[in-house]
Design goal:
single chain, 417 residues, alpha/beta, seven-stranded mixed beta sheet, four-stranded mixed beta sheet, 14 helices, 37% helix, 16% strand
Length: 417
C-alpha cells in the first residue's frame, strides 16, 4: 500500500491517518474498504459526520438526481430551491414538532465557524465579552472557538492569546462541588475577578472530553441559571446532535429550550460540509453580511441535509439508536467492564466510552491499535486519551455492531491480562 505521496508532500499536521495508515477507496453503511480490498467496521463515523451511513443510498440518489439537472451548486446566500426545501423541511418536520421556534443562520461549512457565529452574536446582543465554558469541552480550532476549547494540546497550537472565556469546572470533576452555586458566586462576588458572561456555551455530552454526559437535572439548572442572570444558553450539538444520543437534538431529554443551537457534521446528511446556528428570533440582530462565508450556500449539502431529515423520520432512526444503544451498554458491561472494577463505561444512544484512566491511560491507545489490526476503526478521547470512544453510524446492523463490540472486548481482554 503506497503512502509515500502523503508522507512526502502532505503537512505533518495530519493526524487520523497516523492511527489508520491505510489508503481507503470506498465506503458503504458502516464499512470502509481500503485499496487492497480489506473491509473495516467503522466505529469512528467521520467524528460524527456520517450518522446515516457512508453513501446512504436514498440521500446519495437525491444528490445524483440534482447534479444531473445542472442545478446551481454555488450560490453564496442567494435564494435557491434546495435552500428553501432544506429550511422548510427542517422547520416543519424537525423543529416545530418539538415545540421549538428557531430561525436558521447558515455559516461557513464547519462546526467551528458555527461556534464563531454563535459567540459573536451572543456578545453583540448582550454587550458583554466574556463567555462561560466547561472544562473538558471541545468547541473547535479557530481562535474564537479555540478560546472555549479547554484541551491544552489544541490551545498551545494557537500562537495567540485566547481571552474572554472563563472555564468552569465540569460537574463530574470535583465531588460535592455545586457548579451552579460556583457560577453564581463568580457573578455575585465583587472580588471574583470574573466578568459577567454573555453566554454559557456547552455540550450536553462532552464527546472529545471523554464521553461525559451531563445529567438532565444539571442541564435544567444551567437553563435556570442563565434565565436568572440574563445570560444566553448555547448548546453545541455539532457532534452529539442529529440523533446521536437517541433524539435529534441532544438536549431534548432535559426538556429545555436553548437560546442557540450549533449544528454541523451530520446536518449535511452524507458527510457534506454544512454548519448552522438555530437562534431565537429576538436574538437575530445581525446586520446583512456581518457574519458571512463563501461556502455558506453549498447546494449539495442542502440536498443531502433535506434528504437526511426525510430518511431519518421514515426509518425511525431515533428509536433504533436508543435500541442499539442498549445493546452496546449491556454487552460492554458484561464483557468488558466486568474485567476490572476500575473501568468505567459512559454514554447514551450510540456514543459510548470505556475509561481506562484509573488503570493506565495508555491502554486505550493500545486497544485501538489491536482493534485496527482486526479491521475495526475506533479512536480515543478524554484526558490523556484514556477513553476508548465507540461511535458507529446509526444505521449499523445488529450483526456488524456485535462483531465490532466483540473485537473491542477481545482486545481489552488481551491488554488486561
Amino acid at each position: 500500500m503506497n503512502t509515500k505521496t502523503f508522507e512526502e508532500y502532505e503537512s505533518v499536521v495530519r493526524s487520523y491517518c497516523r492511527h489508520f495508515p491505510k489508503v481507503f477507496t470506498t465506503a458503504k453503511g458502516a464499512v470502509i474498504t481500503d485499496e487492497d480490498g480489506n473491509d473495516y467496521i467503522d466505529f469512528f463515523c467521520g467524528a460524527g459526520a456520517v450518522n446515516y451511513g457512508h453513501n446512504n443510498p436514498y440521500i446519495k440518489q437525491k444528490m445524483v438526481d440534482y447534479l444531473m439537472t445542472d442545478g446551481i451548486i454555488h450560490a453564496l446566500d442567494m435564494y435557491t430551491v434546495p435552500k428553501r426545501e432544506f429550511i422548510e423541511t427542517l422547520e416543519k418536520k424537525i423543529i416545530e414538532p418539538r415545540g421549538l421556534n428557531y430561525k436558521i443562520q447558515f455559516c461557513g461549512p464547519t462546526g467551528t465557524n458555527g461556534v464563531e457565529a454563535a459567540i459573536k452574536l451572543a456578545r453583540k446582543t448582550k454587550g458583554r465579552r466574556n463567555i462561560f465554558a466547561f472544562m473538558g469541552c471541545f468547541h473547535g480550532m479557530t481562535l474564537g472557538a479555540l478560546s472555549l476549547t479547554s484541551e491544552m494540546y489544541a490551545r498551545n497550537g494557537a500562537g495567540a492569546s485566547l481571552n474572554d472565556v472563563t472555564h468552569i469546572p465540569a460537574p463530574y470533576m470535583f465531588e460535592g462541588l455545586d457548579v451552579i452555586k460556583y457560577m453564581q458566586t463568580l457573578l455575585d462576588d465583587d472580588h471574583s475577578g470574573v466578568e459577567k458572561p454573555a453566554a454559557v456555551v456547552m455540550e450536553t455530552l462532552q464527546a472529545e472530553g471523554g464521553i461525559r454526559p451531563f445529567s438532565d437535572e444539571f442541564l435544567k439548572d444551567v437553563r435556570e441559571f442563565c434565565d436568572k442572570n440574563d445570560i444566553l444558553m448555547i448548546i453545541d450539538d455539532i457532534q452529539v446532535g442529529c440523533c446521536r444520543t437517541g433524539t435529534f437534538f441532544s438536549f431534548e431529554r432535559a426538556g429545555i429550550v436553548p437560546d442557540m443551537v450549533i449544528m454541523s457534521k451530520s446536518i449535511g446528511g452524507l458527510g457534506m460540509p454544512l454548519s448552522i446556528v438555530l437562534l431565537k428570533e429576538e436574538l437575530d440582530e445581525w446586520k446583512p453580511g456581518e457574519h458571512n462565508g463563501t461556502f455558506r450556500g453549498n447546494q449539495l449539502s442542502f440536498i443531502a441535509g433535506k434528504a437526511s431529515f426525510d430518511w431519518l423520520l421514515e426509518n425511525n432512526v431515533e428509536a433504533e439508536t436508543q435500541r442499539k444503544g442498549k445493546i452496546v451498554k449491556d454487552y460492554l458491561e458484561k464483557e468488558v467492564i466486568s474485567l476490572d472494577s476500575r473501568l468505567e463505561l459512559r454514554g447514551m444512544g450510540l456514543i459510548w466510552g470505556i475509561d481506562f484512566g484509573k488503570i493506565n491511560p495508555e491502554l486505550s491507545e493500545r486497544i485501538i491499535e489491536r482493534c485496527f489490526e482486526q479491521q475495526l476503526i475506533c479512536e480515543c478521547a478524554g484526558r490523556d486519551g484514556a477513553v476508548l470512544k465507540i461511535m458507529p453510524p446509526l444505521v449499523i446492523g445488529d450483526d456488524l455492531l456485535m462483531k465490532g463490540l466483540e473485537i473491542i472486548a477481545n482486545a481489552a481482554k488481551e491488554e488486561l491480562k
